[in-house]
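Subject: Sanity check before I submit

Could someone independently write out the structure tokens for this chain? I want to compare against mine line by line before I put it in a report. The sequence has 65 residues.
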Amino acid sequence: MSVLKGVLEHAKRHVEYPTSKKALVEACNNFSDVPREDKEWFEKNLPERGYSEPVEVLKALLDKV
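---
Independent answer below. Compare away.
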């Protein structure tokens, strides 16, 4: 669950919405305090679509946990 906590904390505070998977992954790659394995999991498991708010990112990733 640490992957969700770390990445979503950044997605909630540092990403402007609406956004895309591409923009979220690019932002994730700059999350220096998120372990590399978690960033890779995030990129692999986040569905390719648009997101209008952070809760949509969470819901999309919860299906993958």
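---
OP: Matches mine. For the report I'm noting this point. The CA atoms of residues 29 and 40 lie 9 Å apart.
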